[in-house]
Each structure stands twice: as C-alpha cells, then as structure tokens.
UniProtKB/TrEMBL annotation:
Chief location of this protein within or outside the cell: other
Pfam family, one: SBP_bac_1
Protein's name in the database: Carbohydrate ABC transporter, N-acetylglucosamine/diacetylchitobiose-binding protein
UniProt xrefs under InterPro entries: Bact_solute-bd_prot1, Chitin_NgcE, SBP, TAT_signal
UniProt biased composition (Polar residues): 32-51
Lineage: Bacteria, Bacillati, Actinomycetota, Actinomycetes, Kitasatosporales
Length: 474
C-alpha cells in the first residue's frame, strides 16, 4: 500500500497501514441484498465516444473519488484530477483518508458508493468479495482504450507484465487496476553495510552468520511491525517460492491440500525459528506499527526490514540523507533452490477500483487513463519515489538510491519474479490468522512445527468455508 500491503494493498502497498481489512464474509452478507447482478447495464452517465473521449465520458457529470492517504499521500491523484476537471468541466469531489473500509463498506451495502477509489491500506475493502458480488466495474474497456500519449497503443499494451493479471480474481474480467509497481524484499542501509564491511547474503546460513556479526556490533539484525506481522510475509512467503518454485507458492494461494507441509515451507519456517531463537529481532518489535518499525531501523537500532519500495517515501522523515537505501533479493537454502539468487517478489500494487453502481463509472475509468499519461507517471515517480505500472515510464528520470536499487533488482530478476496472491485473495487468512502465527513464531512463543500445522489447518478451514469466495491461478 500507497504504503501498505498491496503496497502497500501491500499489500502492499502495496499493499498502506491502518487496521485489518473487513472480513470477506461480513462484506458479502452486507452486499448480497443490494446486488443487482447486472454487469452489462449501460451507465446513465455514458456520453458520446470520440477520438478525444474514447470511453465516452459525459461532460459535466459529477465524479467522486475516495483515495487512501498513506505513504504515497494523495497529491498525485489531485494532479490527475486537475487534468480531468479541466477537460470535463467539473470539480471532482475528493476525499483522502486512511479508513477506506469503515467509510465505504456501508456505502457499498446501500448501493451508493463513490465512483473511483484507491483501495489500499490494511484497513481497505475486500476487493475479492466486491468482485464476486458484482459491485465493481470491469475495467476491460479502460485496458482496450487508447493511451493519451500514443493513441495507436492500447492501455494494456503499455503495462508491465503481470499488471492485468494482478487485477483478476479467477476470471478474465479485471476489477482492480494496480498503478504502482512495487519491489519487495529485505531493505537495508548500504552505507551501514559498507562502513561495517558487511555483504548482503544469498542463503539462510550466510544470513544467520551475518546476523551474528550485526548483533555483536550492538545492532539488532531485524525488526518487524508486530501490529501488522504480515509484513514479514513479503519475504517469508516468497522465500518459500524461491526454495520450492512458483508451484509451491501457487499451491498455498490455491489452498491446496498439504500446501504448508512441503519441504520448502519447513526449510523457510525453520530459518525464522532460528532467527527468533538467536534473538535476532529487535526487542519490542511485537508491539510496533510499521512506522515505528521503520523509525527504529532508520535510526540504526536494527539493520534490516522486510518492506516494499514505498518505504523510501514513507520513511523519508527519519531516513538520513546518506542512508543509501538498498533492497536485497530473496535468500534461500542455496543451489538446491528451484529459483536462483536474484529471484524477487515484485508486483503491481496500489489497487484502484471503480464502482459499478457509482454515478459515473465511465469517468472513474477515464481518471485512471489520465493517471497513465507520461505527465502523471513522471509526476508520481518524481514525487513519490516509486515506479508505476507503465513500461519505461521511469526511463530518463533521475532516480533516488532506493528506487535505483529496486529498479536494478527487478531487471536482475528477469523472469524469476514471484507474487503470492494470498494477501488479496484471502486477506483474513494472510493478515490475521497466519499473520498472528508469524508473530508468535518471531516472538518465540511457538516453534516451526506448530506454525506449519496451524497454518495448514487455517488454510483447510478457509477452503471448507462456503462463505469465503475461492480463487485459483489461471
């Protein structure tokens, strides 16, 4: 999210932080009675299509935007809104908030949602549930519309691979548009590592050896946000994918039988048990928010954190100018891993949605099209220190240290890019149930075997729960 779990969601976003997402079951029940089920109805706000107005926005029609105001702030949206206002003769009603879920769940239930939403942050709406109950606009018309800068190209043709798929929920329809492209991993200060003569490791055993040196220097090797322990999953889940391959990660996403009982899971969770057993986490981490975690880290009390590339903007108030922000690729067991060192968790994040029952869904899609213009992607990257989902949008720009490192890591990963969907398909399972197990593991309350057994049971229980929408990798 955009500083949390998809940035930030993370998440992300990236996944954004606040409270935990509203459970899918409550959202489904709240929305069921008001769902029209009509996905082909032409919006009353539809205007005449033209080369300059390919989606057919009805000029003068009101548009309401609700935007998550997290690590990315909301000024970049206001910039795009200004272009929209000038073209279509209105002033968009804009609300910036961190309470997307609590403020908007009642409005979806009463079929009076805003048109356009940045559904990010930990306190967001359950996109999967909204999609399953017919509450969201299929964004395929946007993807097939011409881009603003080059009308010979469709929007879908200029997006980084995986962006479209990130907005799908088990079908060809696209219900979320993830604007930022986030690189996740273990972030550290390159200055600190250089000053201490430390090298970022490639394996669990080498990381444990490095942690011993870091602790001996009077610094905690790691810290994490115990209030939002799923941040650790940015590394943990994708380390499972590095060790066991994409199939191991997909099995977890698909809620397959025994997905948490594989050797890859055992190796990764045993590594985290060892980190906890050796006291390699900053004392008090279990009570921290993500901001407190970042502050402890930038102040030099801890050497590394699992986070997303939004951290450069989010932690800017406390990050020294010579910090030298860098991100490390996923580590694993070694040569036996299914994916080589350099494999990375990276994904389109900061999900935007358009309400089907809004007063102006066409306008909502047009605002997204404006956001994809060179003017707006440049503004976003320069102001927010984050990549967008548009291919080559950062080319020629002067990038910050963290963004330079993230961009280099992404290029080095090549095809070895992982992206678990557990966090947006099954938010409660990932963020709360397994997240709490991870918190207990890192604080030494449980061992690896107990984490594995309980994670598998939680997955099985979710699979059996008919009230929870189910998804599979296509």
């Amino acid at each position: 999210m955009g500083s949390e779990i998809n940035r930030r969601d993370a998440l992300k976003r990236a996944m954004a932080i606040g409270l935990f997402a509203v459970p899918a079951t409550s959202l489904l029940s709240a929305c069921a009675s008001s769902d029209s089920g009509d996905t082909t109805k032409k919006p009353s706000s539809q205007g005449t299509k033209s080369a300059d107005n390919p989606l057919g926005v009805n000029k003068g029609t009101a548009l309401e935007a609700f935007v998550f105001k997290g690590g990315f702030g909301d000024d970049y949206i206001k910039s795009a809104e200004a272009d929209y206002n000038a073209k279509y003769g209105i002033t968009i009603k804009h609300t910036g908030t961190q309470a997307i879920g609590p403020k908007l769940q009642p409005r979806f239930a009463s079929s009076t949602p805003p048109d356009f939403m940045d559904n990010s942050g930990a306190d967001n709406l359950d996109t999967a549930a909204l999609a399953k109950t017919g509450k969201l606009q299929d964004l395929t018309p946007l993807l097939d519309a011409p881009t603003i800068d080059d009308p010979s190209k469709k929007v879908r043709d200029v997006l980084i691979a995986g962006t479209v798929e990130q907005g799908q929920f088990g079908s060809k329809e696209v219900y979320a548009f993830n604007y930022a492209f986030t690189v996740y991993g273990t972030f550290y200060s390159s200055k600190l590592f250089k000053d201490k003569g430390w090298t970022y490791p490639q394996t669990f055993s080498d990381m444990l050896a490095l942690c011993k040196k870091i602790k001996a220097a009077g610094i905690a090797p790691f810290t994490y946000p115990g209030k939002y322990p799923y941040y650790v999953h940015f590394d943990l889940l994708h380390q499972i994918g590095k060790v066991g391959g994409k199939e191991a990660l997909n099995a977890i996403d698909n809620l397959d039988d025994g997905a948490f009982k594989t050797d890859a899971v055992k190796e990764v969770i045993s590594y985290y048990e060892e980190l906890a057993g050796q006291g390699y986490f900053l004392q008090g981490s279990e009570g921290m928010t993500h901001i407190q975690m970042q502050t402890a880290w930038t102040q030099g009390r801890a050497a590394m954190v699992a986070d997303g590339s939004w951290v450069e903007n989010e932690a800017a108030p406390t990050m020294p100018k010579d910090f030298g922000l860098a991100v490390g690729s996923l580590i694993g067991s070694g040569p036996s891993d299914k994916l080589p060192f350099g494999a990375l968790y990276a994904a389109a994040g900061e999900p935007f949605i358009v309400a089907k029952d809004g007063k102006n869904p066409t306008g909502g899609m047009e605002l997204l099209r404006i956001m994809l213009s060179k003017k707006q992607t440049t503004n976003f990257t320069n102001a927010i220190k984050s990549l967008t989902c548009v291919q080559g949008a950062a080319d020629g720009l002067s990038l910050t240290p963290g963004l330079t490192s993230a961009n280099a890591a992404l290029k080095a990963a090549g095809p070895n890019v992982l992206n678990s969907r557990l966090q947006d398909w099954y938010k409660k399972l990932n963020n709360e149930t397994i997240g709490n197990l991870t918190l207990d593991l890192l604080s030494g309350k449980i061992k690896a075997t107990e984490w594995i057994d309980k994670a598998q049971k939680a997955s099985d229980d979710t699979k059996k729960d008919s009230s929870v929408p189910k998804f599979k990798h296509l």
